[in-house]
Write a structure and sequence with these properties.
UDP N-Acetylglucosamine Acyltransferase, domain 1; binds uridine-diphosphate-N-acetylglucosamine; Spore Coat Polysaccharide Biosynthesis Protein SpsA, Chain A; alpha/beta; 9 helices; binds calcium ion; nine-stranded parallel beta sheet
Length: 456
């Protein structure tokens, strides 16, 4: 039997007190609804239908073409939301899996088991339950003396006795499509004006139809209604991700204080020190040591790199690169093999060739630096004239003296040297020594003839 999935994501998320739609609040860096979407998509072949409403443009943008979208204009409850998806579910008699978009910890294995239970029990409806010490906000599962499910009752409408029930509705359901669509339109609104999807359980049991349940782990069922829940879910998801990397051969010194987004890749034998954030499309090769106190975002890091207390964004590090402590690589930094970046250095949109060193207090922007270059302490590319950015070129083996200002556009030839405190405003030929303010070529280093004063 074909299976369709519907994800409910149109609610306001009032209890989040946010301008952002609840399902877009990030969990370990990604909108929570994407976790639900991906878990579902791993199990069924067809594109899920996502019901959107509040902030729908943003939700649709975050999901893109991975789903079909139904629109619920007004938040009239989960029953009404599901009804909006009806026309996109084909064929109408297929099995329909329904999930809340605000419960991102659900695992694909659990979704698969729910579908299996549904088929095995030949149920009209199967849903996921869990037990918790903290029942606040969840629907209670009411069973009769024989343990048969009778109904689901929402906390606000539960009797004192029903409130004591610790078996709760996780918000993941599986329906026989033809029965579902026929009965969904018969739901009656509750006093708050909402139509409850959960009333279908009461209806099915009233009709004496087989209802099955599957019990999930409490962690998986956590529905996020408040920012307190969000923090709880964040900790669980973080733990899951970290555990997966440890199982694959990565050492994480303190998993509680290590923040790795689900989109990151890490090679074997890397060691991640506390308070490190690995974010976005980041990948690490093998044998790297990253952290403590480091952020790496959208960057590709090779094998054997060491990064301490630094921020790296949109950068490429080839093998055996060292960075930090206290340096900042900004988008477009590309450090070739064996580059050493020390303290208080900033590199933006620049290439540094193999083995180049930049130890202390420097800024390189829009620069192309060759191999084996020494960037002396305090070197600055003055790349911005107030209106435009200009390039700096430093060729192989050059030695830039401490506190050199390279006023771009400017080029320092191969093996040339600048004296301490130079302000370089004109190109320096290969192997020349230049110093002063503004820098003049004073002599050529051994092996060169015809000393010149440089260009212009
Ligand atoms: C719901 C269940 C409750 C269950 C809990 C599990 C109902 C009536 N109650 O309660 O039994 O224990 O989930 O987490 O279903 N949504 C819409 N349109 C709406 C209202 C909600 O699309 O008009 C979406 C929300 O975006 C959300 C999901 O449905 O993703 C659940 O809605 P929410 O209001 O959070 O339901 P709960 O009160 O948590
Ligand atoms: Ca909820």
């Amino acid at each position: 039997m074909e299976t369709n999935a519907v994800i409910l994501a149109a609610g306001l998320g009032k209890r989040m007190r946010s301008k952002l739609p609840k399902v877009l609040h990030p969990l370990v860096g990604r909108p929570m609804v994407l976790y639900v979407l991906e878990a579902v998509s791993a199990v069924i072949d067809k594109k899920p239908v996502v019901v959107v409403g509040f902030g729908r443009e943003k939700v649709m943008q975050a999901i893109g073409d991975r789903a079909l979208f139904a629109y619920q204009e007004e938040p009239l409850g989960t029953g009404d939301a599901l009804l909006k998806a009806r026309d996109l579910v084909a064929p109408p008699n297929s099995t329909v899996l329904v999930l809340n978009g605000d419960a991102p910890l659900i695992r694909e294995e659990t979704i698969r088991s729910l579908l299996e239970t549904h088929q095995r029990e030949k149920a009209a409806l199967t849903f996921l339950t869990f037990r918790s010490d903290d029942c606040t906000g969840f629907g209670r599962v009411v069973r009769d003396a024989h343990g048969q499910v009778m109904k689901l009752v929402e906390e606000a409408e539960a009797s004192e006795e029903e409130r004591q029930i610790t078996e709760l509705n996780a918000g993941v359901y599986c329906f026989e499509g033809s029965w579902l669509w026929e009965h969904l339109k018969l739901l009656k609104p509750h006093p708050n004006g909402e139509y409850y999807l959960t009333d279908l359980v009461n209806i099915a049991s009233g009709e004496g139809l087989p209802i099955a349940t599957l019990t999930a782990d409490e962690e998986e069922a956590l529905g996020i209604n408040t920012r307190v829940h969000l923090a709880k879910a964040e900790a669980i998801m973080r733990r899951r991700i970290n555990q997966r990397w440890m199982e694959r051969g990565v050492t994480i010194i303190n998993p509680e204080a290590t923040y790795i987004e689900a989109t990151v890749e890490i090679g074997r034998d890397c060691v991640i020190y506390p308070n490190t954030f690995l974010q976005g499309k980041t990948s690490l090769g093998e044998d790297c040591r990253i952290g403590p106190n480091t952020i790496v975002r959208d960057s590709v890091i090779g094998n054997g790199c060491v990064v301490i207390a630094s921020v790296i964004e949109g950068s490429i590090l080839e093998d055996d690169v060292e960075v930090g402590p206290f340096s900042h690589l900004r988008p477009g930094a590309h450090l070739a093999r064996g580059v050493h970046i020390g303290n208080f250095a900033e590199v933006k949109k620049s290439y540094l060739g193999p083995g180049t060193k930049m130890g202390h207090f420097s800024y390189l922007g829009d620069a192309t630096v060759g191999a084996g270059v020494n960037i002396g302490a305090g070197t600055i590319t003055c790349n911005f004239d107030g209106q435009r950015k200009h390039p700096t070129v430093i060729e192989d083996g050059a030695f830039i003296g401490s506190d050199t200002m390279l006023v771009a556009p400017v080029k320092v030839g191969a093996k040339a040297k600048t004296g301490a405190g130079s302000v370089v405003t004109r190109d320096i030929p290969p192997k020349a020594l230049a110093y002063g303010v503004p820098a003049r070529v004073k002599k050529l280093l051994e092996g060169e003839e015809n000393p010149s004063e440089g260009r212009g």
